[in-house]
């Protein structure tokens, strides 16, 4: 049975809005669980919602049940909470030891605890790509520009770097130019990583590579690019962007590819060894 | 026989000056090969010198021979050249294919080509630590502050990250706070990495970890910290700095440790598994 009412745990950025629209288009109702100063106000204006906090786990479950949600989807950027300042409710206290242990391993481990928790409570945990399937990157060049020989070598190097980092649950992105790793993404995110590439190294060219972490649950935190990513990649002088085919999200695809074409950048989907 | 006249290939920062002083104290004469707009003018004022360019390999050898150097030491930061703009001399043309191939692998591979080249030409290639031995980090806390339990866990995670990156010849540093990797160093260098940590994550604490790359020739590009590193680590809210014992350089040691003590930061030397 397909889910009837989706509890959208919505972080920042435009992805939650895209997923909400796709859910509605697929015949679902949407109830938004939002974060203060994070979730897009436009989304809150369009859907019934309630603000939640990381530590009020019982309150969150109650809100999901009271609003008749049978599934949840976590999507959009959320800042890590300051664990020293949490004042959890009873359910939160029960989950806290697991959360703290996972938090020391990385973001991916932390999100997995939440996925498992909702799973156990009987909710169907859905990935954004299950709802808005057309946002996933295809294989090969998606716009009019294709990567050149040096770009392909840079993509390969970037994939090795992101794989090594991802295995340690660090980040999902890296920038490589002419074999030199200009930047590696950790907690700062892709936009800030691209910002600092402008002044690094000599010459232009290079690629941004974004992949999921090895073993990552694809229901949370898929690598994402959009118009803004393309604009920043262009400002950094890059030749293009390589994302994991079937696993990275290209939001606002038409506008994103149009911007890439206009900037002369490629966006290409790559498959990793050992995955299809 | 100990070297008589050292050709100091001097990049930016204060390390070349420290090495020059240590060489003089050890009874060596110093001739500086300098880079335009990179090498410290104070160093140039104190020692005979000549400006060199990456592509003028023959000219560099000539300068070393004309000035009777029997050894060379490469130390200090140098920006990667824009390989598309090089106009090499004859010796440079001979070396170029190797340099280009190595450059695609990373900085470490690139420097190794230069080490091997000077080696073959009969120069003794010396590491900064062989000349200024007292700059190397010891094992354990070097100042008055020692790392706590969470710091030790963060150091361990940081070491795993830097090891994984170093194996790909990416960088030598990372910042970890409460298990979360805040930042990973690539081409931007330690100072800029620390700068961006201030605004990342919640709360304070965390460690900067700096290690050599696995398999790195210790005669070039040793990880280095100094007063500036401590100041930036403090500004980022970190608890301390962990460097590879016997392989990382603590420049201006007295002032650096004093600053760390004053800021309440630890500086500790760590040994990696498989190394002593």
UniProtKB/TrEMBL annotation, chains A, B:
Q: Which residues cross the membrane?
A: none
Pfam families per record: LpxI_C, LpxI_N
- Residue ranges the record marks as coiled coil: none
Q: Which residues form the signal peptide?
A: none
Q: Identify the domain of life.
A: Bacteria
Domain LpxI C-terminal, by residue range, is 139-267
Query: Boundaries of each LpxI N-terminal domain copy?
Result: 5-134
Name the PANTHER family on file. BLL4848 PROTEIN, LPXI FAMILY PROTEIN
The protein's name is DUF1009 domain-containing protein
